[in-house]
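Notes, p. 3: input format for complexes.
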Amino acid sequence: MSPDANELQELVRELHRQGTAWVPSGLGSRLDWGAPLRDCTPVSCARLRGIVEHNPGDFTISVRAGTPLLEVQAALAPHRQWLAVDQPWGSRRLGAGSVGGLVARGLAGGYRQRYLGIRDQLIGLSLLRADGTAAKAGGRVVKNVAGYDLMRLFCGSWGSLGLITELNLRTLPLPPIRRGLLVQGSLNELGSLSQWLLGSSLSPERLDWWSAPLAAAAGLEAAPLLLIALASISAASLDQQQAAMAAQTPLPLRRLETEALDHLLAHARGEDSSAGDGEARTEPAWLLRLGVSPDQVPEALASPELQGLASELAAGSGLGLAWSLAAGSGDLEPEGVQRLRQLCQRLGGWLTVLRQPPGSSALPAWGDAPARLMIERVKRQFDPKLQLAPGRLPGVASA
Ligand SMILES: Cc1cc2nc3c(=O)[nH]c(=O)nc-3n(C[C@H](O)[C@H](O)[C@H](O)COP(=O)(O)OP(=O)(O)OC[C@H]3O[C@@H](n4cnc5c(N)ncnc54)[C@H](O)[C@@H]3O)c2cc1C
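Output follows (399 residues plus flavin-adenine dinucleotide):
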């Protein structure tokens, strides 16, 4: 169903009266990722589209939930502003999706290192509760009144608590100059550089670890890699930062300008236009979201469990993605993913399965969630008939 703004509230009320199971959807690009949904109807936000208000002087923007992320970035660019989030993984194949979907998933990517997560960019939202009641949380300005922080609860709610209709977000000035630096070497050498950088006064936009297979997929040497992205108002400042890093490591720093960096990222993810029609364009059989304690990233990358996977992990948070490189069912068995999950848990983290090959002996999307009881209570508070996104959250019993 794809209602327009005038039809939406009545539709949600009707679904509630009938007790129909449904799931809020943005543009439907990644709806099937994560724990499988039980039979339910997608309610698309594709017709809730457009920028409601952009206030360049206040660095705020209000958008309808179904507005494509790319449309928002394009509207902000002439004002030299942007939403400080990464292109979602898989954007060139699947599209970047809507802003509502981005917030509902709550994932920000490597830019989180400098700009924090999407929940920190959000200053307010409007939503429809499961019974169709309209509600608002937060506001339109960066300073807000205190109260229950409902809007951050909706970040990463995966469509299970209500339907977001409009969002107010903080914008940031676009950095005038950007530069990427690639460093390859042993995990120890890269670990020292990363530790130093995280403790230094330099504030890279991103500081991402790549596994050796990801570096190889990007056409580089098959060795672990640190991707450092810098931004500044002057080239001289970038030169100084680069020199400070060079003084800390014997490893060569390879410099890439913004366009080349974007190209490399796309190439590594099998998304660039030069990729042929073969494996590079196929969706990976496995896509995993994982996290470990930031100081344990080198240990995770050294493990046999990550050897066959492309993975990128942010150095500051220890969060990232891993995916299989081979097409089809891939060379990864569910037991291998289960071992990887145990490893992440041992290293202070977790693993969530976003995609797995159909027909594999379905691995639970979520690992053990200690907050299950809390999740279930919140869910029942917002959606007493358990209509929304059935099956998606861990620990929520069926109606
Ligand atoms: C670096 C990075 C990596 C990412 N990696 C992944 C990833 O691996 N997997 C992934 O799924 N996403 C990922 N995301 C998030 C991704 O951006 C969004 O899932 C996607 O952009 C949403 O696209 P869509 O509009 O087509 O939403 P859909 O694919 O239609 O929906 C995505 C999710 O959001 C919910 N949703 C959508 N719109 C609303 C709404 N208006 N109200 C309430 N809930 C809603 C849906 O129920 C569903 O759970 C990533 C984002 C970034 C920045």
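The longest strand covers residues 163-170.
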